[in-house]
Every structure is written in C-alpha cells, then in structure tokens.
C-alpha cells in the first residue's frame, strides 16, 4: 500500500493519472481552453497539497501506535505514504510551472492520451 504513493509521483510526472479530458479535447485552442487547463492544474495542485497535509497529520497520530511484530512505531509505515504524497506535490508543482510557462496552449500529444480499449 505504501509503495503505491511513491509510484504516484512517477504517474504524476508522466501525466498518466486518471483524468477526464473530454471537455478540453473537444474545445479548440483559445483562451477558454487555456483557462480550463489552468483551473484543472491548480485544482489538482490543491488536492495533492491537501493530501500531503493530511498525510502529515496521520503520521503524527500514528506515532504512538506500535507494530506488533517489530515494536516499531506505525508512523514509519505512514511516513512512506507521506513521502509519496510530498513527492507527488513536488511533481505536480513542476507540471503547473511548465504548463504556466507554455501558457496552457500546448495541445496534448496523442501518445500521452489514454485510449479506451
């Protein structure tokens, strides 16, 4: 479970996360499409930021709990989750920065889009 959050950083970098891109794909290039893509990027950044914040709170709460086998604090397990969340936050901030530099005008590559089987 914990490693899935580390893998989330890789998925964020490759822009392979679950997304509904129907509206932006149907819109032609222009200011409305750029505004929509910017809004989606900032909402995603905010969501991942909240996820990182909540991961810190759960690590703090689980520090007093112990693993029964090794007598280590459970916060070590949840710390990996927090690390993955912060890695995703950094990657998403990089995506927002890159898209902002491009003005949210670059059309998505066909190879980046996931096609239904």
From TrEMBL:
Transmembrane segment boundaries: 35-56, 76-97
Record-level Gene Ontology MF annotations: transmembrane transporter activity
InterPro entries registered for this protein in UniProt: DctQ (IPR055348), TRAP_DctQ (IPR007387)
Keywords, sorted A to Z: Cell inner membrane, Cell membrane, Membrane, Transmembrane, Transmembrane helix, Transport
The keyword Nucleus is annotated on this UniProt entry: no
Coiled-coil segments: none
Membrane topology field: Multi-pass membrane protein
GO cellular component: plasma membrane
Biological process, per Gene Ontology: C4-dicarboxylate transport
Record Pfam families: DctQ
Domain of life: Bacteria
Protein localization: Cell inner membrane
Stretches assigned to the Tripartite ATP-independent periplasmic transporters DctQ component domain: 3-101
Assembly and interaction partners: The complex comprises the extracytoplasmic solute receptor protein and the two transmembrane proteins.
Record function comment: Part of the tripartite ATP-independent periplasmic (TRAP) transport system.
Family: Belongs to the TRAP transporter small permease family.
Protein name: TRAP transporter small permease protein
């Amino acid at each position: 479970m914990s490693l899935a959050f580390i893998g989330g950083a890789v998925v964020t970098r490759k822009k392979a996360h679950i997304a509904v891109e129907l509206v932006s794909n149907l819109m032609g290039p222009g200011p409305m499409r750029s505004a929509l893509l910017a809004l989606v990027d900032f909402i995603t950044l905010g969501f991942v930021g909240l996820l990182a914040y909540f991961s810190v709170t759960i690590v703090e709460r689980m520090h007093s709990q112990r693993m029964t086998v090794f007598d280590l604090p459970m916060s070590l397990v949840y710390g990996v989750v927090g690390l993955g969340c912060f890695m995703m936050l950094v990657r998403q901030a990089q995506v927002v920065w890159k898209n902002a530099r491009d003005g949210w005008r670059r059309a998505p590559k066909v190879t980046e889009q996931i096609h239904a089987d």
